[in-house]
Automatic annotation (TrEMBL):
Family: Belongs to the UPF0145 family.
Entry protein name: UPF0145 protein DM813_20465
Record Gene3D superfamilies: Hypothetical protein apc22750. Chain B
Pfam families the UniProt entry points to: YbjQ_1 (PF01906)
InterPro entries linked: UPF0145_dom_sf (IPR035439), UPF0145_YbjQ-like (IPR002765)
Protein source organism: Pseudomonas alkylphenolica
Amino acid sequence: MIITTTGTIEGRQIAAYLDVVSAESVQGINVVRDVFTRFRDVFGGRSQTLESALKEARSQATEEIKARARSLQADAIVGLDFEISMPSAAGGMVVVFVTGTAVKLR
């Protein structure tokens, strides 16, 4: 499955636009490790806990959107867009939402 953030695929022609597809993933952040994340927020530095949760959520959402496109018999997804949110003011979870257009290629 070809996925791209662009609206075209170099060297390939889009034969049909099948449907908009989307997927989401919500990852909890370990409460104990979340304390260290907040500590880093105050004093600076990278939060491996948050980065790990984001990476896992992005990976899960990407696999899910591919599965949804496959169910439409798509060859590719174009215009892929990721949105990331931390809905709780206190932290504790991260949400990744991905959307794109499933297409059939020639």
